[in-house]
UniProtKB/TrEMBL annotation, chains A, B, C, D:
Residues 4-141 form the Semialdehyde dehydrogenase NAD-binding domain. The gene is argC. It is an enzyme of class 1 (oxidoreductase). Its main location: cytoplasm. The active site is at residue 149. This is N-acetyl-gamma-glutamyl-phosphate reductase. The lineage of its organism: Bacteria, Pseudomonadati, Pseudomonadota, Alphaproteobacteria, Rhodobacterales. It comes from Pseudodonghicola flavimaris. Its EC number is 1.2.1.38. SUPFAM superfamilies: Glyceraldehyde-3-phosphate dehydrogenase-like, C-terminal domain, NAD(P)-binding Rossmann-fold domains.
């Protein structure tokens, strides 16, 4: 059985990545692609790497007939997404890749994003889209909110540890290294090749990065009490990949066992042998997340590493994984391609 | 029906690329992987990006039982390959990725590679593996010789033009830009990141690059008289991709029409609209070759551009495409994934 | 004796590069820096790599008192430069880094740049700034027009050969590879790291690149008859560097001798041993140009390679070299730092 | 007055960087360059970016007449250095760039480097070469031991804080990001462009990196009691640069003031405005170290960032800075060039 889908915001990187992945899916057909500023253009012009595919011409959202659409991916900018989704048919299944429906508490949303939420009903309904931890809710959901790519990385490293209570909740430091595609296709000076390549720097440090809203929400919920982690992202001269280096206090072996057991049956989360660390090289272009654990020389301290591709497992791959659950498809369908190395 | 295959030389980039592609193939099963110096190791150690796959442990070639193998990919170094293949069962189907069986004339082989050929019988039997131009021979072949990655690029740009006689055969210049993975996983100073990134240079220029042997053989055969092109490859700081810029004398529109018609029905060769040029960005990790044609301001001159991924269409993708033909599979099977961009 | 200078357009890459170079010059003092949109900002904010220097605050051009300025560098955008320079004091020495005063024929200017020239008097007065070939004129000039960076590269390879008549003037092909900083600090999608890194492509091909105006003017003047070369630039994923690969017909040894003699006494142009090729790696951040010559296997054909740093020898280094001549300083002053490698 | 120097191990990156820097020094002349395996070669062959310089031919150490040498830089591999230095004239001033003389306690040396020290007399005599903190000792020293590049980065961030007692000594975490040239010109698979570019990973984590020996020694000495920091280096796809992200417990404002005061008079250490972070882009190719301090949202926590160029301030620039002190030269001589950006 074929599912018809639409992608809103198909002219950005996450939209293009969705198309790349869906091209490998036997049961999903792309019926509509929107791109407000590029409406009327062919995808071959916007993303020449997709020129071999038969794809709908980019259109405006208002031109889409949603009656024949089974599921809609929203890859729109933050704030735009909530406005658009509020106006979509109320029985349309939606996977949103923006930040708009990740935070359940409207006050938290406003705190991190600066504006009152414009689609409160949908916000209440939305299910947090970290597939491995919300499978049942996602299967039953109409609207799934994809996680932040950094937020996903940190949670893969930490959720089982917080649930199991094997790390000191007040001493968690997440030092993150992100590639540039996470910032999207936006024209900013610091994203130019000449500004970015051959150097690196922290950004949004000190507790200001918006993905902290997700960490606060999810980790506190798991722990049953407020948890506030320290989080410092860095921009690295590469196109894809996130590496999280997580400093925790706890017994390294116990931490390793906890993670190894938590992910033993997960197809997309691979826990490396104890003492080994992952590399973003080895997950590029794939839906896999690699996790490593090492003991520090300082007793009672451990380091947990998590690596994933921000555009795939951190965004569009996760979105397709969720769509598979919502559509009754096999969760892995279209997502098992090996990473691209070198 | 499942075909059992072996990959000899699985610890190099083309070996790993074969595994990545075959992972998407529904009817091929990997039964054996050899790697002389790394025999006994798991692929997850040699190529951690493949750790999610169930793969045979690396072994020595002599440990492989070829009786159950339908087809063998040889991704061994030049010179080694001819020795190994000479000793393999004579009824085993083989796709060789080395340079050893590309040149039909033993004297030409010795001229370009410096040693007398050690497997003359197999050399005589081998079919040149540029799929789009040798389909029937490949379907019937036992041993197919994969082309050089640079040689493939130049031929996609030039073969239809030489066949049709629409360019001056004595005035062809091929300026090539290659990414570094074409040099393999070898430990050479000029392949270090610190030596290569942020700069670029020509190499093997002046008529010394071995792929000229393939150009000479193939173009002369097409033209029915000796054709000698000028060929200058350059090493570019990127991991995958070849861009050929071909300077020809002829009518640009005629040249365009000739190429457009030649590749109209080809699934993997895409001719762009007249006046547009391809980019290696848009073929990365895929089996597609993009071709562009433009007129120069100088009358009677045209530029033909061809872009492909050296590890995929230029090597392992071509190899799988050939194997599909040899095994009676659909030619595109396992090869239709979209390029990875960004 | 100290010379006081101003830099107009100091917030772009060529402006910053001028400051970097002048910092090594014992006899030049920077008195004013303009940046229209960033007026009022400190250079430490605009270019944090210059934060250790004591520099004037960015101002608007109209705020500069030119009475105390000995020489003014104009690193403004094309078209803006001619308007600004037309309004500057007529006795102020000027080195212009834009394209506005490179072409002597107003019709040629309009053909390549699309607008009638707005400062014809100054255009007539301007001296073409390729130092090695216009030394005497530059020493006497009030207004020097810096060359295009691609135009400089091609001319270093070809001028002595055209002057000496040792190559076929109707068969010159210049295949150029440029790094991205040549495009400036402009916010364009194709200059983003995610769009540019790990791939490469031609641009402005077929005879449309504006630097052809310079080639036509200079090469025709040298030859005493019209010369039209074929020119195809490519964008390479690196920040600095231009490599020109020039295909010529002529005797390779003669070509080599001609170049070796022409540059024997030049401090900044290095001719490599016959048969060796330069790399952009080895000129990065310096004012040196490396030239190589090789014979092709095809008789009567040679390849000339030229490599330089587009921001230094191709632009700001050349500008300082010219300013030294105009100010009576030693030509090499401030310009002898070694390239940065790796 | 001109000082004659020799560089032992001039065929590696730190040797080449020394030459690049000394080229800007008015009072130092290079009299001898050694390179065991490349003895007899010209530097133009080994490092073509230095081809414009008049330099001695590479020789073997035994061929050098040290009687006319005022100071010798040793850029030899670890373990080799101690053997060579033990045999040099005992009145020769030496700046060693290896790890051999950094640790004062022979037991600590053996613990981290695995072999008994072979030059105990010299080890006892050596002064630790972090210029800003050992100026007086360095001025009087015969043998100065250059610091590790990572060790320098961490110490610039932390020494004043530990001295002033404004951070919790038991809660220091140093997450470091290093470019690849720190690993030298060695032929290792993980240093290949194809393995390194476009990805990143931790290495020598968990308390195993040898620069911890320096941290332990220096921080404990400052604190007057054992201090053990947590240290996790990561390999980043860039050629030059180290960024240290240091997590400390203490008052961010106090920490900032402490650092600002400590470095107020230092020419090469720049403390950014409070709340700003440095980037390795802005120190590339220079002897500057940029330091930033930010408060975290978690009370009592701060983040200190330090960025420098591993080959310059982290190694060869530091070495020249020390040599200047030992030779009675101005400390900044030859070291004030601005960073190369972009």
């Amino acid at each position: 059985m074929t599912h018809n889908i639409a992608i809103l915001g198909a002219s950005g990187y996450t939209g293009a990545e969705l198309i790349r992945l869906i091209a490998q899916h036997p049961n999903i057909e792309i019926k509509a692609l929107s791109g407000e500023r590029k409406a009327g253009m062919e995808m071959a012009e916007v993303f020449p790497h997709l020129r071999h595919m038969q794809l709908p011409t980019l259109c405006k959202i208002e031109e889409i007939d949603f009656s024949g659409i089974d599921l809609c991916f929203c890859a729109l900018p933050h704030k735009t997404s909530q406005q658009v989704i509020a106006a979509l048919p109320t029985d349309l299944k939606i996977v949103d890749l923006s930040a708009d429906f990740r935070l359940r508490d409207p006050a938290e949303y406003e705190k991190w994003y600066g504006n009152p939420h414009a689609a409160l009903a949908q916000q209440e309904e939305a299910v947090y889209g970290l597939t491995e931890f919300y499978r049942d809710e996602i299967k039953a959901a109409r609207l799934v909110a994809g996680t932040g790519c950094n937020a996903a990385t940190g949670q893969f490293a930490l959720r089982p540890l917080i649930s199991a209570g094997v790390v000191d909740l007040d001493e968690i430091i997440l030092d993150l290294k992100c590639a540039v595609s996470g910032a999207g296709r936006s024209l900013k000076e610091n994203l130019l090749h000449a500004e970015l390549s051959e150097g690196y720097n922290p950004y949004s440090f000190g507790g200001t990065h918006r993905h902290l809203g997700e960490f606060d929400q999810e980790f506190s919920k798991l722990a049953g009490r407020p948890v506030r982690v320290q989080f410092t992202p860095h921009l690295i001269p590469a196109n894809r990949g996130i590496l999280g280096t997580v400093y925790v206090k706890g017994d390294a072996e116990t931490i390793y066992q906890t993670l190894a057991e938590a992910y033993a049956a997960e197809p997309f989360v691979q826990v490396l042998p104890f003492g080994q660390a992952p590399s973003t090289h080895h997950v590029r272009g794939s839906n896999y997340c690699h996790i490593g654990v090492a003991a520090d020389r300082l007793p009672g301290r451990a380091i947990v590493f998590a690596a994933l591709d921000n555009l795939t497992k951190g965004s569009s791959g996760q979105a397709l994984q969720n769509a598979n659950l919502m559509l009754g498809e096999k969760e892995e369908e279209g997502l098992t391609m090996a990473p691209l190395f070198p």
